[in-house]
Amino acid sequence: MVDVGGKAVTSRQAVAEGFISMPPELIATLDRLKKGNAYEVARLAGMMAAKKTADLIPLCHTLPLDKVKLHFESEADRVRVTCTVACHARTGVEMEALTGVQVALLTLYDMGKAYARDMVIGPVRLLEKHGGKTGSWQADAL
Amino acid sequence: MVDVGGKAVTSRQAVAEGFISMPPELIATLDRLKKGNAYEVARLAGMMAAKKTADLIPLCHTLPLDKVKLHFESEADRVRVTCTVACHARTGVEMEALTGVQVALLTLYDMGKAYARDMVIGPVRLLEKHGGKTGSWQADAL
Amino acid sequence: MVDVGGKAVTSRQAVAEGFISMPPELIATLDRLKKGNAYEVARLAGMMAAKKTADLIPLCHTLPLDKVKLHFESEADRVRVTCTVACHARTGVEMEALTGVQVALLTLYDMGKAYARDMVIGPVRLLEKHGGKTGSWQADAL
Amino acid sequence: MVDVGGKAVTSRQAVAEGFISMPPELIATLDRLKKGNAYEVARLAGMMAAKKTADLIPLCHTLPLDKVKLHFESEADRVRVTCTVACHARTGVEMEALTGVQVALLTLYDMGKAYARDMVIGPVRLLEKHGGKTGSWQADAL
Amino acid sequence: MVDVGGKAVTSRQAVAEGFISMPPELIATLDRLKKGNAYEVARLAGMMAAKKTADLIPLCHTLPLDKVKLHFESEADRVRVTCTVACHARTGVEMEALTGVQVALLTLYDMGKAYARDMVIGPVRLLEKHGGKTGSWQADAL
Amino acid sequence: MVDVGGKAVTSRQAVAEGFISMPPELIATLDRLKKGNAYEVARLAGMMAAKKTADLIPLCHTLPLDKVKLHFESEADRVRVTCTVACHARTGVEMEALTGVQVALLTLYDMGKAYARDMVIGPVRLLEKHGGKTGSWQADAL
Question: Which residues of E are marked as active site?
C-alpha cells in the first residue's frame, strides 16, 4: 500500500457512473419487484460497498468517508447509476465511487435476474475527481 | 432473502466475463507495475470478493464455494477477465461469478489509475450457468 | 464454540420480535424521510445483519441461512419488527432471528434520530423456534 | 449517507443503556457458565460491534473511535448494560453506543439461552450525548 | 481457489499449537490486567478469527465450523496456546486451527504490550489433523 | 478499549518480523507453485490483514493506515517476512505490523501445505516502533 503519509489531508471528491442494460418491461417494474424496490436495495448496497472499498481492493487505503450518494435514472432499455463520494483524507476517493457504482449495478442484476439473465453491465467509468495534488479532472464525453 | 430451503442441494456452476479498456502501453506493463503484478493482485481480489458476495449483495445467500477461478487475457487495448465459480448449494452462483469479475476489474483500474484515469469497464455479463431447477443456460454471442 | 458436530443437519426455524417507541408524527413519515424509506433501510440492514450473526456473537456458529424475512407493523406510538430465519444446519437460528430484529430496530432509530432522540427499543424476544433435538418452542404471551 | 464534510471535527461522546431480564438463578451463575464468563464475552462482543457500527447500520459513517467501554450491573432479575463511546469526528457516536449495548445484550442472551429461552431484552435507549453542533443532551428518567 | 467439489463431505479435525514468551511477572498477572483477563480476551479473539480464516487467507474455502476450542497453559516464561477445530466439509481445517492460534497469540501480545514490548511469538505449528483423503497426520516432537 | 482521546495525533511507525521454516526444495519453488506465486499471495494477505487488525484484536483501535509494506527474504531453510506500517493517529501501529506478518506467514503455510505439513512459524516479534509519547524503541538482537 503506497505511503500517503507525506500528503496533506484535503477535501476530496469523486463521481463515477455506470449502466446496466435491461428489458424495458423489467425496467418498468424495478421499483416494485416481488423481492422489493430494486433501486432502494441497490442504493443501500452501493453505499455500504463504498464504505468497504479498502476491504475489497487490496491496495486501497481505509478512508473515513464524509458522504456517499447514489443516484439512479432509468432510460428506455438501461439504468444509469452515479455515485458521488466525498472525504477529507490523504488520498482520493475514485475507487470508492467506482465500487459504489459496481455493487449497485450488481445488485440491480441480482434483483432482476429472475426475469432476465442476459443483462449487460457497462460502461462503468470515473466521471470526475477533485482535490489532492493533481487537482480536478473530468472525463471526456464518451 | 428468498426462501431456498425447499430446493435441493445440487452442484452449481457459473461463468462471468468482463472487460476493461486500457491504453496499450499500460497493458504492456500490467505484470510489472511499481505497485506489483496487476493480474496477480486482481486475481486475488476477485477470488476474495467472490467469497464475500453475500456480504455485498443484500439478498444473496451465504454459500460455501467449492471453487473460484479467475482468468485474464490481454487484448490490444483491453483486458478480459473471466471468473468461474462452483458450489454445492440450494441456489446458484451467478452473483458470485459476476462479483469476482467486477472486483477484479476494479482492482485492475486501481493498479493502473496512476497511468490512465479514463479506463472504461464493461461489458460485464454472465456467460453460462449450470445446475439447479432451471438447468443450463448460455449467453448469446454479444 | 460448542461442538455441534455430533448433531444432525435438520431444518431449523426461528421467529423473533421487537419494538421501538416513537412519536406518532415520526411514525407517520417513516416511509418517506429525507434519508429514505426507513422501513426499507431497516429491512435490508436486518437481513444483512442476520447473515453476520456469527461475526457479532462470539460463540455462534456460521450457518448458511436459507431464508431471512423481516416484517414491520406500525402501531400508534411504536413500530413492531419481526424476523423469521430458516436454515438446514446442526444448530438453531434463534440468535440470527434476534440479531435481525435488533439491527433493524437500531436502523429505525438511526433513521429517526434527527427527529427524536428519546426513542426506546424493547421488548425484544424470541417468539418461536422449530427443529433440532428440543423440537418446537413458543413464547408465552407477554 | 448524509454529507458531514462541512461539519467540524470535534470531541464527541455518547452513553447508551439496555437491560435483559433473566431468571435470578441464571444471573447468579453468569460469570461462570460452562460456555465461559458471560459478562466478559458480552463485553468484548459489544466492544467489537461498536467498531463495526458503520458496517451494520447502512447510513452510518465509519468513525475511528477513541474509546469504547462497557459496564454490566446485575439486578435481582435483570442485567443492565451501559456502553460509553468517544471519538473525534464530524458526526456523533450515538449509534455506536447503542450498537455496543445491543450486541452485548444479544451475547448475554446467547450465553444464557441453554438455561432460559424467554429472556426479554429492553428497554434500550440513549442516555446522553455530548459534542457537535447540538451540544449536550440527556435522557429523561424513564 | 482449488476446486474441492469432487471431494466428499467428511468429518475433519485439526489441532495447532503456539507459544509466546513473556516475563514471568507479566504471566503472573495475565488473568487480571487493567485491560481485562488476557486469556479470556485471547480465547474469544482466536475463536472469532478461526471463523474468519477464509477472509484472511486468500485461497482458503469458507467452511461452516462445528467446533473451535482454545486452550491456554502458562509455563515459567511463556504461554502455550492450542486451538482445536472440527468441521464437516470437503476440505480440512488446518488453516483454521493455525489462524485461531496466531490471533490468540497476537491478542496476548496486545494485552501485555504495555508491560513488555520484546515478547516473542513462536514456535507455531500444526500438531495433528484427521479426516479427508490423506487421513490422520501427527507432528513429530519438536 | 482504552481511551486514546487525550493523546495527540502524531506520525507513528512500526516494523515487525517473522519466520517460517520450510524444506529448501519448497523454498526454491515458492514463486511458481501450482496455486500461484506464494510471495505475492502472502504479500497481499498480509497487507489486507493489517487493515483488519481492529477487527481481529478486540481491544485495538481502528486506524486509517498511511502505509503497509511487506518484504520477503528467502534463506536456506526458512523465509523471513517483515511488515512496516505507518499512520497518523492517537495510538501506535505495533499490532498492525505484527498482524501483517502473522497473516503473511499463515498464507505462506497455506500455499506450501500440499508439500510439507511440518513447517514451523516463528520467531515473530516487533523490531522497532516510532512516534507517540514513548518515542522510539528498537528490539535487541535475538
Answer: 110
CA distance A15 to E1: 34
* Model pLDDT, residue C5: 94
Residue found under cell 462541512: D6
Contacts of F89 in chain D (CB under 8 A): 64
Please say if the pLDDT value at position C142 is more than 80. Answer: no
User: Which chain D residues have a beta carbon less than 8 Å from that of C57?
Assistant: 45, 103, 106-107, 110
Close Cβ partners of B123 (under 8 Å, ≥ 6 residues apart):
A120, A121, A122, A123, B18, B19, B142
Q: Does the active-site annotation cover D31?
A: no
pTM above 0.95, yes or no: yes
Residues of D contacting chain A (CB within 8 angstroms): 1-5, 54-55, 58-59, 61-64, 89-90
Identify the burial level of D34 via C-beta atoms within 10 angstroms of its C-beta, where 0-12 means exposed, 13-18 middle and 19 or more buried: exposed
Q: Do B103 and A57 touch, CB atoms closer than 8 A?
A: yes
Q: Given F3, F55, F66, F110, which residue is catalytic?
A: F110
What pLDDT digit, counting tens, does each position of E44-76 carry?
Answer: 999 999 999 999 999 999 999 999 999 999 999
User: Tell me, what amino acid is at B142?
Assistant: L
Which candidate from D37, D45, D48 shows the least CB-CB separation from E40? Answer: D37
B chain contacts of residue A19, beta-carbon cutoff 8 Å: 122
**For the segment B94-138, what is each residue's pLDDT rounded down to a tens digit?**
999 999 999 999 999 999 999 999 999 999 999 999 998 889 999
Q: List the domain boundaries for chain B.
A: 10-132
Which residue has 479506463 as its cell numbers? B119
**Inter-chain CB proximity A1 and F86 less than 8 Å:** no
Q: What letters, b where the CB count within 10 A reaches 16 and e where it falls short, cover E45-71?
A: bbbbbbbbbbbbbbbbbbbbbbbbbbe
Q: Which amino acid is at D56?
A: L
CA dist E30 and E39 (Å) reads: 7
Cell of E119: 515478547
| pLDDT of E37 higher than 90 | yes
Q: Report pLDDT digits (tens) over F86-126.
A: 999 999 999 999 999 999 999 999 999 999 999 999 999 99
**Quick check: F102 and E107 CB within 8 A?**
no
Q: Which residues of F touch E (CB under 8 A)?
A: 2, 18-19, 35-36, 41, 44-45, 48-49, 52, 55-60, 94-95, 98-99, 102-103, 105-107, 109-111, 113, 117-126, 129, 137, 139-140, 142
| Rounded distance between C-alpha atoms, residue A56 and residue A46, angstroms | 13
What DSSP line would sit under B59-109, residue for residue? Answer: TPPP--EEEEEEEEEE-SSEEEEEEEEEEEESS--HHHHHHHHHHHHHHHH
E17 within 8 A of E80, measured Cβ to Cβ: yes
Given 3.30.70.640, 3.40.50.300, 3.30.420.40, 3.40.1260.10, which CATH number is that of C10-132?
3.30.70.640
Model ipTM?
0.97
